[in-house]
Design goal:
Rossmann fold, three-stranded antiparallel beta sheet, single chain, seven-stranded parallel beta sheet, alpha/beta
Length: about 425
């Protein structure tokens, strides 16, 4: 019965859609109007007898309780029919073939409005995958994105124009967009030829142009989000021009290990050696105030998935961001990658990812870790990636939660819907435990 109600016209009466209260107001108004008309007719009937056919028109040959029931049912049916037809007539110019029903869209909108305040921290493809799933559960989403990217189109724009790298922001805006698929694809379109344009994406150029028009990069993000009807916000972790640096440990057979310092996010993964640590220049970069505020007000803070050293940690290395996470009363979860990344986390297990975070920012930042537990044979991914395996023994420093999180088509990546669903289950379980 519940399934029929949720899929049929009676879904308008499902709790949480905020329609019943106004329907009751409408019914109350019509009832009072009907009573007024009834009193008027009764007064006329007492002053001047009505023609004989009114005896049949008002069904006086039927008992009073029967007339009340019949008129009530017919009146309710007419009210509902009028509401449905009125909605169809008013909304027809705004609906397209194949678009979901108004009641379904309204129900989902109300549910998302009640969703928790979620802050996600990271960058790259991993963060956009997570956002694509989470936007179905809440409208209160804030993505905090690294500004250390210096490769590709973003790096060129950063170097030539002195702007923050727009690439990761573009990906997050596209992931959170409610706009038509064509608009989103246009934002992600990358030019394949042309002097000066080759390699640039339209979205990057759009954001940079918007920054020039509005006068600031952060305002450009707001206006770009408005164009694509984004659910939530996309914020930089800092507005300073930071450089990601790494100390690499190089080992050669028969010789002592050597150390080398590399500057630039795009250069780190291209070098031979094991990453010992990463850091920002300047190290005391100040956090973007809106990002700190979002963290302090959050119900759920999520770091990852994404490149450990070049997407997740650059945000956490901003001191005020880490301090805000520690001060927040939100549930804090780290999402471990499904597969390792060549030049960055080759051979890493889940425990190695956690220990790397603990080494850089301390061991109390994320006490809950969500990891994949479904391994579909060898990883069919480029660059020789391997599965991020689960630890053999439990670690007291964190709580490990596992689930099937892989994308069936690209098993070296997370599935947006699986990941978001399991994450929200974790959050809801935490809320129930605290209540």
């Amino acid at each position: 019965m519940r399934r029929q109600v949720r899929r049929g016209p009676l879904r308008w009466l499902v709790p949480g859609i905020q329609v019943k209260r106004w329907l009751l107001v409408l019914i109350a108004g019509l009832t009072l109007f009907g009573l007024g008309c009834a009193y008027l007719l009764r007064g006329l009937y007492e002053v001047r007898p009505l023609p004989p056919f009114f005896y049949y028109l008002t069904l006086q040959f039927v008992p009073r309780w029967g007339r009340a029931l019949l008129f009530g049912l017919v009146g309710s049916g007419l009210v509902l029919l009028g509401l449905v037809r009125l909605n169809q007539a008013l909304l027809a110019p705004f609906l397209r073939p194949g678009q979901e029903k108004v009641v379904d869209a309204l129900y989902r909108h109300r549910q998302r409005q009640r969703g928790p305040k979620v802050v996600t921290i990271g960058g790259g493809t991993g963060l956009s995958v997570l956002l694509r799933g989470l936007k179905e559960y809440t409208d209160h989403l804030t993505a905090i994105v690294t500004v250390a990217d210096d490769g590709g189109s973003s790096g060129r724009l950063r170097k030539e124009l002195g702007v923050l790298p727009p690439g990761d922001f573009r990906n997050c805006i596209a992931a959170l967009s409610e706009a038509e698929g064509l608009t989103s694809r246009l934002f992600q379109y990358r030019f394949g030829e042309g002097v000066g344009l080759n390699g640039h994406s339209f979205g990057n150029l759009f954001i940079v142009a918007m920054a020039e028009v509005t006068g600031s990069f952060e305002r450009a993000l707001v206006e770009s989000s408005r164009v694509l009807a984004v659910r939530g916000r996309v914020l930089p972790s800092t507005l300073q021009n930071v450089t990601l640096c790494a100390d690499l440990r190089e080992e050669q057979e028969g010789t002592e290990a050597g150390w080398r310092r590399v500057e630039g996010e795009s250069s780190i993964t291209k070098q031979l050696g094991t990453i010992a640590r990463v850091f920002l220049e300047p190290e005391e970069a100040s956090a973007y105030p809106e990002a700190v505020k979002a963290i302090l007000e959050a119900d759920l803070i999520v770091a990852g998935p994404g490149s450990l050293y070049t997407s997740v940690l650059p945000n956490l290395l901003v001191p005020d961001v880490t301090r805000a996470i520690r001060a927040s009363g939100a549930m804090r979860v780290y999402i471990c990658n499904v597969a390792t990344q060549a030049g960055e986390t080759h051979g890493y297990s889940v425990g190695d990812h956690i220990r790397a975070i603990q080494k850089h920012v301390g061991g109390d930042l994320f006490r809950t870790v969500l990891a994949n537990d479904r391994f579909l044979g060898p990883v069919a991914a480029p660059s020789g990636a391997e599965w991020v395996l689960l630890p053999q023994e439990e670690d007291e420093d964190y709580r490990l939660v596992t689930a099937d999180l892989v994308d069936e088509e690209s098993p070296w990546r997370h599935d947006s819907h699986k990941l978001a669903r399991r994450l929200m289950e974790l959050y809801e379980a935490q809320v129930r435990a605290e209540s």
